[in-house]
Fold:
Amino acid sequence: MTAKPHIWRFFRAGGFDQPRIDTPADLLAIGELDQKLWVALSCPVSGTEFDRRTLALIDSDGDGHIRAPELIAAAAWAAGRLTDTGALAGGDLPMTAIRADDEEGAAIVAVAREVLAGGGERIGVEAASAAQARLAEKAVAAWEAQGAAAQPLGADTAPAWESLQVVAAKIDDWFTRCRLAAYDERAAGLFNASEDALKALAAGTLDANAAADLPIAKVGAGGAAALPLQEGVNPAWAAALADFRARAVVPLLGARAALTETEWLTLKDRLAPYAAWQAAKPDPAALGDGALALERLARYCRDLMPLANNFVAFRDFYTRQGPATFQIGTLYLDGRACELVVAVNDAGKHAALASLSRLCLVYCDCVRGEEKTSICAAFTAGDADQLMVGRNGVFYDRQGRDWDATITWIVDHPISLRQAFWSPYKKLARLVSEQLQKLAASKAGAVEGKLAATAGGVAAKTGTPPKAPPPPPAPFDVGKFAGIFAAIGLALGALGTAVASMFAGLLALKWWQLPLVAAGLLLLVSGPALIVAWFKLRARNLGPLLDANGWAVNARARINIPFGTSLTQLAALPPNAERALTDPYAEKPSPWPKIIIALFVLAGIVLAGLSFVAH
Structure:
């Protein structure tokens, strides 16, 4: 009978439908779910806030990435080792839920009983990991106990074996050449360096390794009785042979200047047990024992459901129930707390792709003592007026540790509609301020020039050598100045005409139309910036930000304006806080702003009155 397909439920977030993984049945059915509906198809092991040991166990090929087939396989393996898949809902592993009707299950149960020998019915991840560590220690201890018989030189066996490994291939090659030369004397000339090879060496600048590819020693015409270890060896291999002689030949065979093939084979046989012992060293990460399988099962029961909800779906991120696996902490900077913070290895490479997210991104180098790391934070509320390279903040990681953070790179995108509305006026104010500063600087420069000239005259009277006289002023050009005055007159006339036309138009309006005109002027100035910002804010996408970190995001994970605003917290006074509004160091208010506002209001009233009378 064909099994019924799993009935999936979805929730809408980020502008797309995401699968709900609320029960172990949902988790075990992810293999049936069309992968086009998965939010991500791959995530990196590093740079994520998830248990590294669990991720390493799921990463079956050890390539540093968790992919969809590996997550499906992990869930299937866990289900196969359980009599009650309800254990996959999270928490500790119940002893009664472990399946024990096969060899692997029996081994797991045996270790589980040892873990629970002191009482209890559920096995935590820490206890299972401790059992695996104890078993690994026992295996390593048993392996080390076998090492005495495998080390003929004791502690000096390892250096001897390592020195042999360096020259083994070249020595085997040399003895093979000698046997062939003994078989046919014509081969001896071919097996040594040819004249062309030596000419090629002679043409260049030689160093110690220039002849490394040539035989380790000269092959004799009638074969060679022994390999020289000191005299007549290839200079590129002289040091390695000397080390091999001192560490392996002399301690095992005695002092000698040459090595026969029989002695060479004997030497390798003497060190072969050490090589076999090293190859048998137990790997604590390898599966096959009950303790490691128990640890794996306990971790899967605790972690597979949260991992799936940060992989198949981005539930934790979009429901705001807790930080997602890619959120590594919170950045406090410029009166804001940014919660969408990801790890970064190379800011330049990351920004090249992450800028497509349309998020305002700030890259920071973080330092804590000798530790260093780099982060990328998304600013999704407030404005960017005070965000600049070099500003400092504090980054709190998920463990609660604080880091000194310094801005190194900014990817500028609109943060909010409010910022976009006021941006033209801020730019105008900045432009006017810069022009006034330039004008003031030029005037100050002129005054300083006059003072310098005056000082030069005084110095001349007092006998100080005068400086070079300034160039004579250009002669007065009447035609040029007449043209300038004419241009100024035309400009003033056009300006006056425009002002008169504007006032005439305002007088022609009804009084209730004047506020509409003012609103229209505001929209005329701020409208284009608002439209551009609105389109960019609607296009904000989490995908490129994570893809730049090695994820394979499979959906258009949008960050709309309300949700984006919730990712950056602005500074706010606590509830029921008392606030003193008197600032003893506040600047004295100038009356001119009030006078100007009053004049504008009066002008508006007059224009409204004139318009009312005219109609």
The chain has three domains: 10-145+287-318, 150-279, 326-447+518-572. The two ends are 88 Å apart (CA to CA).
